[in-house]
Amino acid sequence: MCSFVYQKSVLLIAVLLALSLGVSCTGGSTPNASGGAEASSGNRPPIIKSAKLLHDPIPLTDPVAVQIVAEDPEREAVTFQYQWYVDNVPLSGQTKPTLPAELLRRGQMVSVEMIPADGTQKGEVYRTAAVKVGNTPPSVTS
Prior knowledge:
Number of helices: 1
Shape: elongated
Number of strands: 8
Structural class: alpha+beta
Helix content: 10-25%
């Protein structure tokens, strides 16, 4: 008799614990507390926290590069798609992580748009602040 009462108490405690943790009888869980921000697959898109061009002003001696701080909620590897802009006009074919300096002239404003991706989801577009191409000292070529 004691064994039966003990088992019944353990079962009751297990059911109460499951209910307090939000587990239903079918093994599901309560909806996401963030208001349904998760995708149906449970994977959330990566986010670019910040990004900036490495030099300000931009010298014409090296390719233009960008420094990106990004985060993926599931800690998956993040890749980026790039589109470079000069004076707010997209440069055709310039979709690599760096922009060749040969394409630039002093006084132009350069920025880059990036889209983060984790292999499953793409994040929102992030655009850097525009940076001016500076005056580069002349060099002796021969």
